[in-house]
Amino acid sequence: MNKIYPLVLIAASMCFAARIGALKGENACPGETVTIKLNTEDDDNPSTRILSQRRDRRDVTPGSIPVPGVYISEDKTSITFKYCVFNVLNFNNINYKTKYDYAVLLLDDACPTGSYKVKRHHDTEDGKDNYSWGNVYPNEIGHNADLYYCFVPKKTCPTPYDCSFAPSFPGGGLYENGFFAYAPNYAELSGGASQVYTLFETQIFIDDENSRNENSWDYYGLSSTYRTAFNKFMYNAGERRKDTEMYVAYSYHRPNGGLNKTAAEEVVAKPVNAEQLSAPMVKGLDRSAVAVELKSAGDVRITVANVKGAVVANIVENNLQAGVHQIKWNSGIVPNGRYIVTVKQNGMVNAKNVILK
Q1: Is 35 within 8 Å of 133 (Cβ atoms)?
Q2: Which domains does the chain have, with CATH numbers?
């Protein structure tokens, strides 16, 4: 007897996290690390160099950006970038929405949802190879270098709760990594009046090959508006516009008393009163409620995100009083595991890693 096996066609929409690289900050990477070294022009070299720190001007220690900063080292013939690797599902959730454009390194076939691929071809020093350590695919590091980036457009932020102060990558802690951006002059109270997050910005010049220079960009159909936005922080430079300049932004958590004047003025300008000087706290998470402790009255926004950065719950409660609250949420089919719970109130933010059982 012949057996008939029916052919079943299954259509499914599946989303996969993509690997991206954020510039390594002061703390250790939570997982994988990759490094890219570009050998730059030796002859007639105006110096591959860190040009400036625009937000908190300091003397630049030769060979590195001083603390606070990200891991970028340079000399007259090379520049080295070290990245922490993260798996990101999309750039549309609250952890990645910012009110400025930025970019991160692409380490996968395609950029996560909500971002757009851009390629820079560096025609580097003739006769010398560039180097990489770790899995830097699809970036091609050899005699020349093709570097791929994911451009993340800025978001409209009707309230402070609709955007993050800086992208917070999964497992990397709160605002610990660098990214490519023309940073806003911005600071945010967090963890009480004595603690402030501040964005800094550093301008970097990369001296590519002078003779037979074939530097190029591939924007993969990026709109003219987004192209202009990207070129605000990464663009052709130099006497013949055959070199590369870029802006790197990174955030820093430090005492309020150490703020530079401009950032301090912005914090003071915010309507903060005495009862708002302490940040809300995440006390715990279970299947029925999120426990938070509020030091002042006000509206509260809570997000629950998994270790890949995907938000599984957005919770908003209005007009809560100071004190401990058990805020109900629908855990539904959310699986057991580790999650990052972020609570925002009155312009302040706090986060905690929790285990959901």
Answers
A1: yes
A2: 18-256 (no CATH), 274-356 (2.60.40.3080)
CA atoms within 13 A on the CB side of 349: 25
> What is the rounded CA–CA span in Å between residue 207 and residue 82?
19
For 80, other C-beta atoms within 10 Å of its C-beta total 17
All residues at 6 or more sequence positions from 244 whose CB lies less than 8 Å from its CB, including other chains: 120, 122, 205, 206, 208, 215, 234, 235, 236, 237
Inter-CA distances, 313 with 142, 188, 246, 347, Å: 44, 24, 36, 20
All residue ranges of the chain with pLDDT < 50 are 1-14, 45-48, 51-68, 190-195, 254-277
Determine the pLDDT at residue 191: 44
What pLDDT sits at residue 1?
42
Bridge partner residues of 319 (DSSP): none
Cα–Cα–Cα angle for 271, 97, 341, rounded to 5 degrees: 80
Model pLDDT for residues 301-317, shown as the tens digit of each residue: 888 887 666 778 888 88
Q: Show the tokens assigned to 170.
A: 């999964």
Task: Quickly tell me which residue has 């959730």 as its tokens.
Answer: 93
